[in-house]
Design goal:
The complex is a heterodimer of chains A (97) and B (157). By secondary structure, chain A is mainly beta. Chain A contains one helix and six strands. The chains are: A mainly beta (97), B alpha+beta (157).
């Protein structure tokens, strides 16, 4: 069973978590001031990287909190998890699987 | 084999609030809310269970007080969920039939609590003693959880 480390509760089974999409997407301060293309980019366009990407996850059946994770999408290996608001930790492009 | 029984009815609240509201709540409730992750605190007949960094489940009477430190929220969930007590040999093994937590008493020690899953139901699990667990579950899932525990019980007859 895959264990995911919640920054608040520690290592827990993947059954307790839900995926929350790409991380570090900044909401425009005044959406009406930006162009349609920029708003489309903000609302709909996501990276969908094959490899290491930063994602939001939620400890849904635990503390209920959102947090960020760096995960390799090819191996499903979690390289790091960290609280919302913290900077993304530096990581190598290659995962140890 | 552990016995499955209904826990005595009690008032229940979900309390959510930041540092300021918590500090005032500590005074108003006459007990400190546990700040350590996944730990419960018992004072007399009342208990406060840590659910999240700003969320607690309060069990017992005397929590129904108004605070001035806004914002905070306190929701009466007395009738939303029921308490099930599991007490006796193999209580942890019976839970592990549907719960992925490591329930070794050196890992999930006495006094720890957390929200987790049991089969398809979300539960709040609280270890009151090495062989005693308190389960809080939404009442519509009550029959399902009791049924699954009864199946687990047969394993250890």
């Amino acid at each position: 069973m895959l264990l995911i480390k919640c920054p608040y509760c520690g290592e827990r089974s993947e059954l307790e978590f839900s995926y929350g999409g790409q991380a570090h997407i900044v909401r425009p301060l005044i959406p009406s001031d930006i162009t349609d293309e920029a708003l489309t980019e903000y609302l709909y366009h996501r990276d969908n990287i094959k490899g290491v990407q930063a994602e939001r996850w939620r400890h849904l059946h635990g503390c209920g909190r959102f947090f960020n994770a760096v995960r390799d999408t090819t191996t499903d290996h979690f390289q790091a998890t960290y609280k919302i608001g913290e900077a993304q930790p530096a990581s190598g492009a290659k995962s140890d699987g | 084999m552990a016995d499955i029984s209904e826990a005595p009815h009690t008032e229940r609240y979900i309390f959510r609030g930041g540092e300021k509201a918590c500090a005032e709540a500590d005074m108003a409730f006459g007990m400190n809310l546990p700040r350590e992750a996944c730990h419960a605190k018992v004072t007399g007949e009342r208990a406060a269970l840590w659910l999240g960094p700003d969320e607690w489940l309060l069990l017992g009477n005397g929590f129904n007080v108004q605070l001035t430190a806004l914002p905070y929220s306190q929701v009466d969930v007395s009738h939303r969920q029921i308490g099930i007590q599991l007490k006796g040999n193999h209580a942890a093994d019976m839970l592990n039939i549907g719960c992925p937590l490591d329930l070794d008493d050196a890992i999930f020690t006495t006094g720890m609590c957390t929200r987790t899953v049991f089969g398809k139901a979300e539960i709040i699990l609280w270890r009151q003693d090495v062989q005693t667990f308190h389960i809080e579950v939404w009442r519509s899932f009550g029959d399902y959880v009791r049924g699954l525990l009864a199946i687990a019980q047969k394993e250890y007859m």
